[in-house]
Amino acid sequence: MKSDQSPPSDSALLPLEGITVVALEQAVAAPLATRHLADLGARVIKVERVGEGDFARQYDSAVRGGAGTHFVWLNRGKESVELDLKSETGRDAIKTLIAGADIFLQNLAPGAAARLGLGADVLRADHPELIVVDMSGYGDAGPFRDRKAYDMLVQAETGLISVTGTPEDMTKTGIPSSDIAAGMYALTSVLSALFRRATTGVGARVAVSMFDATVEWMGHAMYMRLYGGKQIARVGLGHAAIVPYDKYPTQDGTILIGVQNDRGWDTLTRVVLDRPDLAEDPRYETNIDRVSRRAEVDAVIAAETKRFTTAELDRRLADAGVPAAEIRDLEAVVEHPQLSERDRWRDVDTEVGPIKAVLPPMTFDDIELAMGPVPALGEHTEAVLREFGIAVDE
C-alpha cells in the first residue's frame, strides 16, 4: 500500500498539543469542529448531560449493535464529563474547567449559555485570553434567532433546497451540509483566533451560525439571482451553467461527465467519442451555445456514450483528461482503491469495540494526526474533576 504520509517523526508535535478545549455541545455542527481540534492534538473535554449525554448518542445503535453512527463519527479523541448544569455545583465545576482552558465552544439554544453564567463577556472578563465560540442556527440577533435550526430547516431557509434536486422535485442534500459548513467555519475561526492570540495574548469571542455558513456557500446561485435576475434551475446531477455536465448511459450502466470549458468539449468529441463533426459544429461551439441547447446536447452525447462499457469509457475519458467519474454507492466507497491503496483506514477504540475510521483529511508530512478513542458517557468525569481540583462527591 502507498500512503500519502511520510513515516511519523518521534520528535514532531501534533499542531495543537497543549491546547485545551471545553465543549458544551451536541448533535453535529459543534462536535465536528471539536473533533477536528482533537485530531489536531488539542485536549477536548466534552461536557454532557448526566445520564443522557449528547442526544446524538441515541440517533441509532448501528455500530456493533450499540453505538450511534453520528456519535462515533464526531466524537473520537474527546474526554466525556457528566455535569448537572442545573445545579450550582455543576455550573461552578464547568467554570473551573473553562478557567483552565484555551477555548470554550458551545452550541446551546440562543441565550442558554448566558443564563448559565457562561456568556462570553462574563467568562472573558476574568480570562481575556480565552477564545469563546458561540454556535447557533440563525445567529444571536434577528427575527429568526430563537427558531429551531435543524439542518434540513436551515437548508430550506437559505435556498439550498431550492437549487437541489430535479426540475420536478426539490430535495435536501444527503448529508447535513449546513451543520458541516458551520462546523468547518468554527474550526477555522478557532485556528485563526489562536494564531492572533500568539501575537497579541488576547483571546476572542466568535459567533458562527448555520444560516450564515450556508448562505456563504450559496455564492454562485446568489449572484445569479442578484445580477442575472433569475433563479438557477434544478438540473439533478447536471450543472445549471455548464453543458455537458451530467449522467450519461453506457452499455452496462452510467457515467458522469463534466466538461468545464470549450477545450474540454473539443477533446471529448474529437478524441474520446471520435466525433470531430461535433467538435466543429457551430451550434455547439461555446458553453453558452451548449447550455442554450441542453437537451439536444445531452441527447447527442448519450447516443455516443452508449457505444462503450462503463469501464472502457472511464478509461478513455481518463486517458484524454476529460473530467469523469463512476457513480458509486457507499459499499463501493468503503472498498474504494483510492482509500485502500493510500492506507487511509485506521482502527479507533469505542465502548463497543474497535471500529474502522478514515484518517483526517489534513495530512501532515511529519506526523500522523491523532485518532483517539470515542468516549463512553461520563467515562472521564472523576479523573478530570480531580485533576481540576473539583470535589467529585459534589
TrEMBL record:
Q: Which domain of life is it from?
A: Bacteria
**Which keywords accompany this UniProt record?**
Transferase
* UniProt GO molecular function: CoA-transferase activity
Question: InterPro entries, from UniProt?
Answer: CoA-transferase_III_domain, CoA-Trfase_fam_III, CoA-Trfase_III_dom3_sf, CoA-Trfase_III_dom_1_sf
**Any Pfam family the entry gives:** CoA_transf_3
What is the protein name stated in its UniProt record? CaiB/BaiF family protein
